[in-house]
Amino acid sequence: MLCKSNIRLQLNLFTLLLALIHNGSTLPPFIIKQHDGREILYKVASKGNHPKPFSLLCEAAGDPMPRYRWTKNGEHFNLTEYGNRIIMNSPNGTLTFLVPKDEDEGIYQCFAKNKHGFATFSPLIVRKSYLEGFKDDSIQVVEAVAGRPLKLECKAPNAYPPASVYWMIQTRGSGEIQSIDDARKTVDPDGNLWFISVSDDDVLKSGEYYTCAASSRFRNEYKLGIRVQLKVIHANNEKEEKITPIVQYVSAPSIVSLRGQRTELFCIYGGSDPLHTRVIWKINGTTINYDKRIKERNFGKSLLIRDTRILDRGLYSCEIISDSKETANQSSLINVDVLAEPYFISYPQSIVAIENQTKVVEFTCEVRGLPEPTIIWTYNGRVLNITTSNDNDNELVTSTQSSEISRERLSIVKNKLTIKDLMKSDIGNYGCNATNNLGFAYRDFYLDIVKPQTFS
């Protein structure tokens, strides 16, 4: 099983064809298949169940065909220690875990090498998924005053990825369940169930319970927690409590979202009649126009932003407006900042240069991100540098140290790499690696130099 397992296919067929049709072709390794995401989830089979194999993709092209190796947590990963439990899928370098175990968690990285260069794949974080049971799954009797708001607490169980917590109505014995779809009831992000105002209609039939549950989409399973029997009592000030709107739960006053992810803001109110109370959402003082990407949920008590963008940054407000003349409007403010992992606007393409004819090659790597990313260029898996030795003044070399030096043959200026007066030693696998404190974006490409074609 794969999480975030969209596969990146990167293959420049035109340049590959040019490189292979001539005599004595040379082609450094370059990546054609790897995971687009950085995290891979897997399951460990419970007793009596069949194992759930998973794979780590690694495939490159080159001439000659590259050889592969893997590291785990920065150390050489020796397949022979695992027998047939973990195998490499020849002729590519994909690893398949036939019988996953707890100890398979770690950071894995694949490398492909031939005599012309070295391709480095993005590291993969491999984590075991799990969903524990609730610590409290007891039956509780809760008394609530009619007309007043109510909170039923539910503490999520330990899980990875974090479980989705929700409430439902469960019938004792038959196990029948019903979803809760009611403007007067809302579940907050912590898994607590809020009643705007309790009424006699909230008392369930005999044998039915308000039940807290947690589910794991990846594992396709759920666990049940506390079950609640609700008893409603009546107080003298019931009418007054019904018309007094109060804020029950609001998202933190300042939150940080990531570009491309889902953002949901909550503004749950209570103590009022939902038929005569509404929430108006605004950004920077302007009422929000809803569309497919931004819409209300939970009967207006939450605002969902799908595929969050940088332009979604701003000061959001939720205004609780009641039709009753006895109440005043209330407003809560939520400042949303949006950061972004590095992402490509454009990335370098592989080049097949003609020996003694192509004088200059340029590679441009245009990247965005918040905070602004730093770009590092690599050559055959190492940070690109230029020797300062007089003996090798015109040679392109690598080292483990980055360099801002601009020499006669090679120039690195921010997002552009330029190589002049090409030499055979320039053949290899290059990479643009953009990083900030949130993550990285990496794209590899190759430079090949071939002899001119002659036709008889």
Automatic annotation (TrEMBL):
InterPro entries documented for this protein: Ig-like_dom, Ig-like_dom_sf, Ig-like_fold, Ig_sub, Ig_sub2
Matching entries from PROSITE patterns are given as:
IG_LIKE
Annotated Ig-like domain residues: 28-122, 123-225, 245-335, 342-437
GO MF annotations in UniProt: cell-cell adhesion mediator activity
Arranged from A to Z, the UniProt key words for this protein are: Immunoglobulin domain, Signal
Tell me a GO cellular component: plasma membrane
Q: Which SMART domains match?
A: IG, IGc2
SUPFAM superfamilies tied to this protein: Immunoglobulin
- Which protein is depicted? Ig-like domain-containing protein
